[in-house]
Write a structure and sequence with these properties.
By secondary structure, the protein is an alpha+beta fold.
């Protein structure tokens, strides 16, 4: 229920009447230009998420596949009911803030950004404060622990463009300031150029410091001392640079110190975002950036076990991750949305990254993949090298020989096989997965088949016979299907009604070792292989998607390709949402909660439209990935349905 409820909430949030207010306000803001968040955040920003313009997303929502489905006349009553439940839930906190849910939703009118930052260094204590400090062992240990945590603290920056003369935002700020006074916080004001900064400090001086300011409807909130202050100074610098730019000599070069550098000047951020934006013609609607090692390093330094954990992290090579970032773009007439994610990695790839061994492969679906597959995934991997490097990591931390003891030895004892000498060398590195929806709708409704390509089918058949000779008969019962032998395992039984019972099987199909958890999927695979039903490779949706994705690959050969029929994914969520079993589960977990009862009643209504009336709003999507010496790039694309 929860995923669909979130979708319903999102639709109610984005497409209810107050959006008209948002859009009309947007027209008043056309002459305003807010400074992009990366030019205001410090170079050492640890994580960052930015929406370029909330109003653009609101406007695009109605034209999205999900937006169209949930705006269908037959779905609107359910969306309205969900929104009414949310409105009732918000009533109590809304009264404290002086805002309704509609008014709260209308606050952002442009750029919205949130960033995780390095906390400011602790303030130096005065001589008097140092003299008053206790000097016993416990007090010294406590003081050192607190100092270590302060030196490696985190801070938060939030930026919201609410537009000029936004009465709702002004009301919210007034209420929050009133709460600060009620809690006896000290309110300090500081003038920074044209910006008036407000700082909230606890009376005793301990605890977090909150800073905020507003300029022309652009609000900045800093959780941490000097956070909003530093952003205000950068905003002043931007304004000064803009006003002076017309009078500058062409020979004038702006210089910046390391302390004043912004995220937009960070070399890793530039490298990641330049690949995440690529050759797209538009500005991305959403961008993000994360420095995983920077975050991990501060968390480790805050703990008392840094001396033990830090070498492990270093051995794993986590510091080689220089940044992870991505973007999301709107599409056009054929493409609904385009996404990019770029992982910047320092070579050589050793330690943990020795396991990341993608290989360029042929990603076209084999002839046995049926056209009605809900998803198709093809991955290329250097399995032998990855396996060897996993062994090095395990042996480094668990002791020499530990990996072999838990992999090679059990395989030899149980099946009389050598993974390193017989099994892994037989694999080409190409792995295919397909999924297909099966009733009833539940968490395991997606039945799947996983296939591993082998270099020599005859040798693979011999290995399969050796395994069969070693396992109990009920684990590999032979059965001939369409002239080919499959081995089925005895079925497990589930006590919970409505759960699909897996029918696990293994077979050699040509040069593919095929593992299935559904007899139905296996039958479809064999029918496609025999040419009795349509194959995915010839499907018009697949052909259209691959042609569109081909342009984004820019000549690169992928190691990853995935094709998805989005309607099948949403179908599971939809049919689970209006099932009595899910409603009962919500009711049981909610106990006496009246909101849970209302949600359960909504799910039990008998006027839900049939899924067949709604699947027309969805098309297909795809994911691709390619490897480079210093990075891994992942892209995604959603197509609009052909009308």
């Amino acid at each position: 229920m929860m995923p669909l409820a979130c979708l319903l909430v999102a639709t109610a949030w984005l497409s209810s009447p107050s959006v008209a207010f948002a859009q009309s306000s947007a027209t008043d803001n056309e002459s305003r230009t807010t400074v992009p968040a990366p030019r205001l955040l410090p170079s050492g920003t640890l994580a960052y998420l930015r929406i370029d313009d909330v109003n653009d997303i609101r406007e695009d929502w109605g034209e999205s596949s999900l937006g169209k489905m949930l705006n269908d006349p037959k779905m609107r009553p359910f969306v309205s009911d969900i929104y009414q439940i949310l409105t009732d839930l918000f009533e109590k906190p809304g009264k404290e803030m002086g805002l309704t849910l509609d008014e709260l939703r209308s606050l952002p009118q442009g750029q919205v950004a949130i960033a995780l930052l390095e906390g400011p260094p602790p303030e130096e204590k005065t001589d008097e404060e140092k003299a008053d400090e206790e000097e016993d062992d416990d007090a010294i240990a406590r003081r050192l622990r607190n100092k270590r945590r302060q030196q490696n603290s985190f801070a938060l920056a939030i930026m919201i463009d609410a537009g000029p003369n936004n009465k709702e935002m002004e009301t919210l700020v007034e209420r929050l300031m009133g709460l600060a006074e009620k809690n006896r916080m000290i309110i300090q004001n500081e003038q920074i150029g044209s910006i008036e900064l407000t700082r909230l400090v606890r009376q005793r001086g301990d605890g977090d410091v909150i800073e905020w300011f507003e300029q022309d409807g652009f609000y900045v909130i800093g959780l941490g001392r000097t956070i909003a202050q530093s952003i205000a100074k950068k905003m002043n610098d931007e304004q000064r640079d803009t006003s002076q730019s017309s009078g500058r000599s062409r020979r004038t070069v702006k210089t910046t110190s390391a302390d004043s550098e912004t995220l937009a000047q960070n070399a890793d951020f530039i490298a990641v975002m330049s690949r995440s934006i690529g050759a797209e013609a538009e500005i991305p609607q959403i961008t993000f950036f994360v420095n995983p090692y920077g975050i991990a390093k501060r968390i480790i330094a805050r703990s008392g076990s840094a001396f033990f954990i830090a070498p492990i992290v270093q051995d794993l090579g986590i510091e080689k991750i220089r940044g992870i970032g991505g973007s999301l773009f709107r599409g056009g007439e054929i493409v609904e949305s385009i996404g990019h994610m770029h992982v910047l990695i320092d070579p050589p790839r050793d330690g943990f990254f020795g396991v990341l061994r993608p290989e360029d492969i042929e990603v076209s679906p084999p002839v046995w993949v049926p056209a009605d597959a809900a998803s198709f995934t093809c991955v290329g991997w250097d399995i032998e090298t990855a396996f060897e490097n996993v062994g090095k990591i395990v042996n480094r931390f668990a002791g020499e020989g530990s990996f072999e003891k838990n992999t090679e030895k059990p395989a030899k004892e149980r099946f009389d096989l050598s993974l390193k000498e017989e099994v892994l060398p037989l694999m080409t590195g190409r792995v295919v997965t397909i999924q297909r929806y099966q009733l009833p709708a539940n968490w395991n409704s997606m039945a799947r088949a996983i296939a591993i390509e082998v270099k020599d089918a005859k040798e693979a058949d011999k290995l399969l016979d050796r395994v069969k000779a070693k396992v109990p008969p009920q684990r590999m019962k032979p059965e001939v299907l369409r002239g080919k032998t499959a081995y089925f395992s005895e079925q497990r039984q589930f006590d919970q009604p409505g759960i699909r019972v897996p029918e696990n099987s293994v077979m050699l199909l040509g040069n593919w070792l095929l593992f299935c958890d559904s007899r139905e999927v296996l039958q479809q695979v064999l029918r496609a292989e025999a040419g009795e039903i349509d194959r995915l490779a010839d499907d018009e949706d697949y052909v259209l998607l691959t042609s569109e994705l081909g342009a984004k690959l820019e000549g690169e050969t992928p190691f990853l390709f995935q094709f998805n029929r989005d309607a099948e994914t949403y179908r599971i969520l939809y049919e689970m949402a209006n099932s009595d079993e899910t409603a009962q589960s919500v009711e049981n977990r909610g106990g006496d909660n009246p909101m849970a009862r209302r949600v359960a009643e909504l799910m039990r209504r008998d006027d839900w439209p049939k899924w067949e009336e709604l699947e027309k709003y969805f098309s297909v999507s795809g994911i691709f990935g390619y490897d480079e010496p210093g990075s891994i790039h992942i892209g995604s694309m959603n197509l609009r349905p052909i009308e």
